[in-house]
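The instructor's notes for this session suggest beginning with a concrete chain rather than abstract definitions. Hand out the sequence below and ask the class to guess, before any prediction is shown, which regions might be ordered.
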Amino acid sequence: MGFTPLMKSIIRQHWGVMFLTAVALSFIALQAFFSTQRKNSLVEVYFADRMTEAHRHLIEEYNRLHEGTIKVIPIDFPNEDFTTNERKEVLARSLRGEGENIDLFAVDVVWVQRFARWGEPLDQYFDKSELDGITNETLQSCYKDGKLVAIPFDQVRGVLLYRQDLLGALPGGKKFMDKVNKGITWDDFIEYAMGLQRSHPYYIFPAAEYEGLLCVYTEVLLSRGEDYFAKHGFNFQTPQAEKALQLLVDLVQKYKVTPTEVMSMTEVSSYEFFSKNQGLFLRGWTNFDKDFPLTADQKKHFRIAQLPHFKDGFPASTIGGWDLMVSKFSPKKKEAISFIKFLLRKESQELIYTEGGFFPVIRAIFDDEIYKKKYPELIQTYHMLAGGAHRPSHEKYTKYSEILVHYIAAAIREDMSVPDALAKATHAIESEKLTLTQEQDR
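After discussion, reveal the predicted structure:
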C-alpha cells in the first residue's frame, strides 16, 4: 500500500527533526567537551535560545562586566533551521539526558509546564520586589503548581500587518484603512476583499502544521469574547470552536482571499511570500521587522493594527514570547541566575525592544515617563493590544497542541470536514489524558 501525501509529509518532518536534533546535540556536546579542557577558574554558562542581535549584544556586555569570572556561551537555534516544534524536541532530548551541557535555556511561554520537571525552582532566588517589577501577563506563565519555575525574558503579540501604500491606492482603500485601524470585523474584512479586482495576495497567515497555526486559531477562537479554555478545556466539539476553524478554512477555500500556498508556510516563509508578492495584509508578530529585516523604503509603508474579530466579540492577540529556565542539573545555577537578573535590568529590556523588537517584560519601561517620551510607539502598541490571549496552561499542552494543529491543518487543506477534524482532535486529546492518568495510577 502506498503512502498518502499527508503520511509522506509526516515522515519527512519526522526524519527532519531527528537530523536537526542529532546536529544540535552534537554541537552542544562538542562545546561541553572543549570547555572541560580549559584549566582556569572561569565559569562558563551555556545558554540555549534563538540568538538575535539583541541577545548577542547583551551577552557581550555581560561577559565584559564579568570578564575572568563568568562567561555566557550562546547555543543558537536560528529560525531558519528550527521551527518552534523542532527546537522544543531538541531541548527536551538534551535535558532528558541529565547532562550538564545546558545551564540556562529559553522556552516558549506554553512550554513551561512541560519543562518544569527539568527546571530549578526559582522562588529562593527572587524576592517580592523583583517579581513585582515584572508585568502580570508575562509572569503568570512562569508557575507550575504554585512554584516559580521560570522568569519572563521577552514578549510578543499577534498583530495584523498591512501595506498602507498598496492599500491606499485601491478603490476605497483609505476609508477602509480607517476602519482597520479602529478594529475591523471578519465580515467587513472579507467583504472588502471580495469587492476587489485583486492583483496582490490579500491576507497571509501561516497554516503549516506547527505551533504558529495554533496561535492563529487561538486568536480567532478567543475573539468570540469568552475565556474558552477556562470553560471548555480541550473540548473542541463546540459551536465556537467550529466557527473559528471554519473561518480559517473559508479564507482559503471558499472566499479565496488567502492563497493556498499558506498551507505549507511557517512564520518566516509567510513573511517572505508576503514581501515577494506584495501582499496587502499579514498575520504576524509585533517584532516582525526584526525577524524579517525590511529596507527603509519598505519599513515606512508597514503599519500595525488589531487582528479582525467576530462582530459579537472583540480583538484578541495571542501572547507569545520566551521565558528563561535554569536546568536543575546545572552546577552553575548561581551564575545563571546572575545572568537572568542582568537581562531584567531596564537597560537590557530597553535593548530587547530597540534591537529585538520584543515588548519588555518589566513595568519600569511602561511606567517611567522617560521611556514613555522616548518610545511613544511602544506604549501606543502595547495598550492597543491590551486584549492579550493566553493559550491554555497544561503540562501536556505541547502534546495536545501537536494533535490539535494536525487536525486544524487537515481541515484547512479540506482533507476532512471541520466537525470531523475537531471531533478527532478532541478524542485524541482525551485518549492522551486517559493514558497519562493510567500511568500516574501505576
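Then share the key points. The CA atoms of residues 249 and 412 lie 5 Å apart. The chain has 22 helices and eleven strands.
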